[in-house]
Design goal:
The protein is mainly alpha-helical. It is built from 7 helices and 2 strands; from the N terminus they run H-H-H-H-H-E-E-H-H. It is elongated, with a radius of gyration of 32 Å. The two termini are 63 Å apart.
């Protein structure tokens, strides 16, 4: 298994872990999302994995950073301030706290994933484009009832080819037959 195959199979897990390490190293949240969108979509040539990776990074990052906010209670005033809250309010606040970064991740990773997958397609097409230059002629192939190829005519313009009616094609076939008969006589 090559490195690229390994990265394609486990790209979501690998890049979420790398993104978490980068965020703990001091890289910005939006920069990491942009990198996820570009790199994951470039490797996989699909946008879906990049978006899933970005959303998982946002969710896991939020879950990991929530307990660190509880440390701030040491810096709070010592006297109590009565605040009335309910369990549903707290749950809604926590869900909104997770939902907002996930929406940002979907948007940022989605846009950059489009760019990354298009770059990957362009690079892939350029690398596989080792064909010889084409001649710009097209062929009209005539077949009989048993689907046996009887004759063909070369045309310079594909648009011209599409405008031919069956009568035109028959005339072209007759002209080609005449040319072949003249060629055989010589």
């Amino acid at each position: 298994m090559s490195l690229i195959d390994f990265l394609k199979k486990f790209s979501i897990i690998i890049f979420v872990i790398l993104a978490l390490i980068l965020s703990r190293s001091g890289f910005g949240y939006l920069l990491i999302l942009v990198l996820i969108g570009l790199i994951v979509s470039y490797i996989n040539r699909r946008k879906r994995e990049a978006i899933i990776t970005g959303v998982l990074y946002a969710l896991i990052g939020y879950i990991l950073s929530y307990p660190t906010g509880l440390i701030l209670k040491d810096y709070m005033p010592t006297y109590t301030i009565p605040v009335q809250t309910s369990t549903t309010t707290m749950i809604m606040d926590l869900l909104l706290g997770a939902l907002i970064p996930m929406c940002v991740a979907i948007i940022v990773c989605g846009v950059t994933a489009i760019i990354g997958s298009n770059i990957a397609k362009y690079v892939h097409e350029r690398s596989t484009d080792t064909k010889e230059p084409e001649d710009n002629t097209y062929q009209v192939v005539f077949t009989d009832e048993e689907n046996q190829t009887r004759d063909y005519v070369e045309v310079d313009d594909k648009g011209e080819l599409l405008n031919y009616t069956p009568i035109h094609k028959a005339k072209m076939r007759k002209e080609k037959q005449k040319e072949e008969e003249e060629w055989d006589e010589d």
